[in-house]
Description:
The chain is an alpha/beta fold. A hairpin with a 6-residue loop joins strand 26 (about 475-480) and strand 27 (about 485-490).
Amino acid sequence: GATVALKGFSHHDNFAGLGTRQNARMGLFRARTSVAMGANFWRMSHNPYDDDLYATLNSMGVMSWDETRDFGIRYADEFEAMVRYHRSHASVTTWSFCNEYECAKFLSDDTGKAFQKLAKQHDPNRQTSANMHTFYKSVSPWGDVDIVGLSHETVQNFTAVHEAEPTRPLVLSECCSCVTDRIGTARDRDATNTCMAGQNRPGLGLPFVSGSIGVWTLMDYFGEQHEWPKVLCDFGQFDGAAFPKAHAWYYQRNWRGAAAQAATCKITTMLTSDDPHNTHVSAFIGSPRAVLYVDGKNEPTATATDFGAVRWNVGLDALAAAGNLTVVGEGGAVPVQCTVLRPHAPAALELVVDVPSASTGTGGALYLDGSDIALVRAQLVDARGTVVSGINNVVNVTFTVTHGPGFVLGVGNGNTTNHQKSGGDTIMTYGGLARGVVQVTVDCTTPHRLAVAGVDVDSGPVAFAATCNGVPGITVRAEAPGVAAAELTIPVSGDLADSPKEVAKQRKVRYTYVDNVQA
C-alpha cells in the first residue's frame, strides 16, 4: 500500500465559555476541524480524554496518541489504567509515557521498563512512545519505547539520531509553537512567516521520520500565557473562541489533497488602520504565481514560496488608502481569486450557528440530552455585510436565550488579553467577532432519566422530560449598543441520529467553516 505521512495537532481540553469541561459536540467540532486542516492524527496532550472523544475518533477514522503526563514508578497505576480503559478504541495507535520535562522528572533505571511491561501486558500489539528531547536522552525512557518521539527538534538532530540508530522508528511528536494573534500586527498575519513550514520540516521532509503528529496547538487555550495581561496562550491555529487565525490557511494550503491545495486563495492582510506601520500584503495561494490588484491597479507578479505564500510591498500610503485588495492566481491547475474589502462603519450584528452546522460537519440540531452545546457566532458588520474587523470598532455583545430549552453557558472572543467573565453572557467583539456558547436544558433522551430526576436534588437548569414531542428550538438574541440586533433559532432534536456520537459516523462532510469566516 501507499505510505501515508502522519499529520496532526496537539489539543488542550479547554475553550471559551466551557472552561475545562469536555463535551461530545465540542470534541466532534475539534475533530472535524483537524481533518479539514489535513490532519489524520490527534495527540492527547497531556492526559487521557473523555470516552466520547475516542468514540468520535473511532468513527471518523482518525488515529490518536494517548498520553499520560507524569512519568515515574509512582504513576505506573495511572498509566496502566489508561491502557486498560482505552485499549478497546480502534483510534488509539500509540501509548505515550510522558511529555518533555516530565520524562526526566522522576526517572529511575526501571521506570521505562515498568511502563513498557505494563503496556505490552495489557495491549501487546500497539506501540509505545514519549514526547522527548534529544538533550534528555540520558534521563528519559529513550531505550524502552518502541518509537522515539521528539519534541521541537531540528532536521540536524533527527538526522543524527537516525544515523546513530538507523532501525529506530522516529516521529516529530510536537512542534511549531508559532505565536500569532488573529488581529495583532502585520507579522501575525504574514503568510510568508516561515515558522510553520520550518518547524514541520523534520516530520514531513525527512524520509525516515513518520510524520508531524503534534503541532502545538489546534486552538489557543487558557494557560501558558507567558506575560500579563494575557490569559490565553497564542500558539493555536485558531483562537480560544475557535475563530481561525491567518495561519490556519497554511495547513489548509499544505496539508490537504492536491485539489484542495490548488483551490486555495486567502488574503491574510486586513484593511484596517490597526497596524499603521504595515506596508505589505500577503496571501496563501494554490497557484505558482499571483497578481495583486489594489483598487484595480495591479502590482508586479509575485512567485509563491514552496508552502504557497505570496507577498507584495505596496507602501504605507497606498495600503492606508486602499478600499479593495484582490489576488488572482496565475499558472495554477484551477483559476483562483480572492478579495478583501475595507469595512465601513458598524451597522448591525449578524448571528450564525457554527455548531451544530453542516459547515463544520457537526450535525443540524442540538440533541436533547441536557448537556449538548451550540457555538453561535456574532459578527459586527457594515451596511454591505462586511465584518468590521478593526480593533478600534468594538461593541459589547450580550447573548440572550429568549425562547426554548436553552441558556447561555458562556462567551468568548479569542482576544488573549480579554478579562471579561468567560462564564457570563456579554463579551466585547474582537476583530468584529464574538462567540456565544448555548446549552440545552431539556433531557428527554437519557436512559433512566426519570429515575435520576427522583433522586437528583441539584440538576441545575436541566429539566427531565418523559418525551421529546413538542420541544421547540432555542431562540438566541444578540444585542449591542448603537447597532441593529440579531436573532436566530437553533434546531433541537430527540432523534438519536442527531447525537454527536451518531453524527460522527457521517462520511460525506463538506467542511466550509474556515472559508466562510471573515477573519
